[in-house]
Design the sequence.
């Protein structure tokens, strides 16, 4: 490594100031989850973005009410901003899941026709009632074979709902720099992890567990290859425990969060029985993952993913990584952005920022607009 001279240091500082407009931090990533309001702001560092401020504020209010009433949102934001040195109130956030429809769209590549026009044309032929009153955005999917039709992840939302949500955020004192969707934010985070950490595998799959549905996202190199929903979620696991053990909903969730699937050396009879009871559900998950791996191999001349990441509801269960490692032959770990981003947080503070799923989503949102390339010191 070559020492940095004073002139090079000045040039680097000028570069950093130019690409962030002289701001102390980038736009804040805001993700409002079922149990926590999550805020993440990054700042420019010598080799890439670093954590400037991060907060995860627990709440017990109804999620839909928080997202519809600035009087409920304001105190949560006040707590979050007070705890850490956030700069400004510009946020990148995402539409609530119940307000947005996300689909994988295949469309023809027509000579001289912009992709946006082709996407809209294809949507008009597939959406009953047309596109009047809809806000539409799309994210191109990595294209390895020019002879194949193109694909894009398309997000659609009712314009009135979008405007109402923006009004709530504005009334809560925020300036919305951009609206995003969670799959794009998480894919952005994984792509950044690949680019910043040479040791990280280049071809990744993310299992984002939800309440009713989960999403399988494949990032190939630094491009998004696939994002597909599957019928699997924590409600399915809770329902099986309720039907087989006669447990109440709350007790079933506490059992999963408290006991989970610990290693064999630490496993009691209760956790062993839990694994056996839920084996059919996880077999269904494995079947969906394997379908995705087969599809990925069909597009990459037989190659498969090098690593899997987990996030979301089921990723909170103790021992879930080991349980899934028994079914797949690739390394599996919880998606933890704090292990890949420089920060000055004490270990006790990091341990407080659980669960990591909301933090991961907020980080992916915060990365929107952060430069893809960075000056190096060598």
Sequence:
């Amino acid at each position: 490594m070559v020492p940095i001279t004073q002139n090079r240091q000045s040039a680097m500082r000028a570069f950093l100031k130019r690409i962030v407009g002289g701001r102390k931090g980038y736009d804040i990533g805001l993700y409002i989850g079922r149990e926590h309001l999550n805020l993440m702001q990054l700042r420019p560092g010598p080799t890439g973005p670093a954590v400037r401020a991060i907060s995860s504020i627990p709440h017990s209010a109804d999620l839909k009410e928080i997202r519809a009433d600035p009087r409920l949102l304001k105190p949560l934001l006040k707590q979050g901003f007070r705890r850490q040195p956030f700069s400004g109130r510009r946020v990148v956030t995402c539409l609530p899941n119940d307000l947005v429809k996300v689909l994988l769209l295949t469309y023809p590549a027509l000579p001289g026709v912009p992709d946006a026009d082709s996407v809209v044309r294809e949507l008009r032929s597939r959406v009953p009632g047309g596109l009047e009153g809809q806000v539409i955005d799309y994210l191109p999917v990595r294209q390895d074979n020019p002879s194949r039709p193109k694909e894009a992840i398309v997000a659609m939302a009712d314009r009135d709902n979008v405007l109402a949500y923006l009004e709530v955020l504005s009334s809560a004192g925020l300036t919305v720099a951009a609206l995003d969707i969670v799959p794009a934010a998480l894919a952005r985070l994984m792509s950044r992890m690949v680019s910043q950490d040479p040791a990280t595998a280049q071809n990744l799959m993310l299992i984002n567990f939800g309440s009713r549905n989960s999403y399988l996202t494949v990032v190939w190199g630094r491009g998004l290859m696939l994002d597909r929903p599957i019928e699997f979620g924590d409600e399915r696991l809770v329902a099986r425990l309720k039907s087989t053990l006669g447990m109440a909903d709350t007790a079933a969730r506490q059992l999963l969060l408290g006991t989970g699937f610990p290693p064999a050396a630490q496993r009691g009879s209760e956790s062993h029985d839990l694994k056996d009871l839920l084996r059919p559900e996880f077999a269904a998950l494995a079947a969906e993952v394997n379908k995705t791996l087969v599809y990925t191999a069909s597009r990459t001349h037989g190659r498969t993913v090098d690593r899997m990441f987990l996030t979301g509801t089921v990723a909170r269960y103790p021992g879930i990584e080991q349980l899934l490692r028994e079914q797949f032959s690739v390394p599996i770990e919880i998606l933890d952005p704090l292990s890949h981003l420089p920060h000055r947080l004490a270990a006790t503070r990091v341990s407080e920022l659980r669960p990591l799923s909301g933090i991961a989503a907020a980080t992916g949102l915060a990365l929107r607009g952060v430069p893809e390339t960075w000056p190096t010191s060598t």
Observations:
- The longest helix spans residues 279-299.
